[in-house]
Amino acid sequence: MHRRLVVPSALAASLLLAIPASAADYVPGASGIGDPYYPASGNGGYDVSHYDLRLTYQPATDLLQGTATIVATTKQNLSRFNLDLGLKVGEVRVNGRKARFSKSGEQELVVTPATPLEKNRTVSVVVRYAGKPSEVRIGGWTAWHRTPDGGVAAQEPDSAAWWFPSNDHPRDKATFDVSVAVPAGTQAISNGVLKSQSSRLGWTRYNWRSNKPQATYLATLAVGRFDITTDTTASGLPVLNAYSKDLGDNTGAARASIERTAEVTEWLEEVFGPYPFNALGGYVPNVTSGYALETQTRPFYSPRQFANGANVSVVVHELAHQWYGDSVSVDRWKDIWINEGFARYSQWLWSEKEGEDTAQELADHVYATRTADDPFWTVKPGDPGPANQFHIAVYDRGALALQALRNEIGEDDFFAVLKGWPTEFRYGNAKVADFVSYAERVSGRPLAGLFDTWLYQPVKPATSTAGATGASARPAAAGPTAASAAAPAAEPVRPKSWKKIAETNTIHEH
């Protein structure tokens, strides 16, 4: 009887050859993308490149049925991963094979594929789901608007979880195909270009395509009965606007505002550079909210925005976001100033363009009407905190920072920055610090002090934007000018354009 002797080192080598990579090499993806403002938002371990959503919606019952096909690339060896969704799931497949799934908390869909997923591989995920979006509550609130003739998904910072599974954070953008079947006589509005529509057996299907990277909260769906207008811009972009048929007295003012979308966009191209997307438009459903939202290519407007008549200023604000917020999106939600400060300042520039008040006059008005003890100055636009993310200071004080920058670096460099930034970071994400570095590079000046004063110090600067520099714009609590900054100002003359700009303040009421 003969026995083979295998030494330990040889045995170990043979086992390594015979056994595949250990399960320990595959780990779960994180249940959040790492944003401290919203720890549950988004997920880790993969990056989505495309969403294909095939939906059926019944307005009478608010029942939404969907099949979402998600194309993604793994960023680590994954044993399982999460998606964000509030509706009930019936089946999940990964690369064609059924996967185990479970729900965790209010929005986490935990998916365990039949076999682990290797890093840097393209994967497809199919999720079949259904439910009534109006019954879903996440964190006690909803992003779904029930209307008399349908429903609308439009909200910030989250809205996707109410109608499709996603990696729900602006840091993971993707292209979209959205196909929606609704009862005949009802329309379905979404982002991008309407590629086709067809009717069969009492249902009409609308097929929309958004072909540039889009954050999930910027995806929108509106189902109802709309009057639709179409046009093309001078450069050939398709324009589609939609107005609920039951807007009542707000109908005329809404149309008088939104039908100027192409005109406003052509002007914004002079300021910010080429329009970054494949379509234009806006829509006004019959909702009870008061805000507006920069849903990509087709902003959402509440009827209340037009309760006091036409207001092109809100159109300017939401279209400015197509460059600042949509094409260039926040890296984390604390970078919200990159969105809102610039959209507000665009309203001030529109006032200049229309021959009303200059941006400097509007800045002076904000500065003069906010005394040093106003809580307005305690909000830091560069990092306002989740409770103050949409505080008026992020908008108005954020715009003051831009006027201070304009005065510091001069007209030529300032407008070079405004136009160059959306090109430099097109279809990507950026931090406030990235903008500061970019402005310094273009202007050749140190600007950290200026931005610290206007975006981060929780006090009123001692000098207005007209005299602000990185060195001289000290907090109001320091220096000999503190008393004058704290003292109540004489009643300032209200700028002519202020009323219309102030009427858009309800865009913060997310």
Summarize this structure as a short list of keywords or feature phrases.
510 residues; 12 helices; 8-stranded mixed sheet; globular; 25% strand; 4-stranded antiparallel sheet; alpha+beta
Helix count equals 12
Number of strands: 22
> For the CA atoms, what is the radius of gyration?
26 Å
Largest sheet: 8 strands, mixed
Principal-axis shape: globular
Strand adjacency order, main sheet = 5-4-8-2-1-11-14-13
| Helix/sheet category | alpha+beta
Strand content: 25-35%
Oligomer type: single chain
Mean pLDDT: 91
In whole angstroms, the N-to-C terminal distance is 83 Å
Helix content: 25-40%
- Runs with pLDDT <50, length 5+? 1-19, 468-487
Structure characterization notes:
This protein has 510 residues and is an alpha+beta fold. The chain is built from twelve helices and 22 strands. The chain has helices at residues 8-18, 251-258, 261-272, 312-320, 337-353, 359-369, 392-409, 411-424, 432-443, 448-456, 482-486, 498-503, and strands at 46-58, 63-74, 81-84, 88-94, 97-98, 100-104, 108-112, 122-131, 144-147, 150-153, 174-183, 187-189, 193-200, 203-214, 221-224, 226-232, 238-244, 280-284, 292-293, 300-301, 329-330, 429-430. Strands 5-4-8-2-1-11-14-13 form an eight-stranded mixed sheet, with no helix packed on it. A four-stranded antiparallel sheet has the order 9-10-15-12, with no helix packed on it. The protein has a three-stranded antiparallel sheet with strand order 3-7-6, with no helix packed on it. A hairpin with a 3-residue loop joins strand 6 (100-104) and strand 7. Helix 3 crosses helix 4 and helix 8 (411-424) packs across helix 9. It is globular. The protein starts with 7 loop residues before the first helix and ends in a 7-residue tail after the last helix. The model is unreliable at 1-19 and 468-487 (pLDDT under 50).
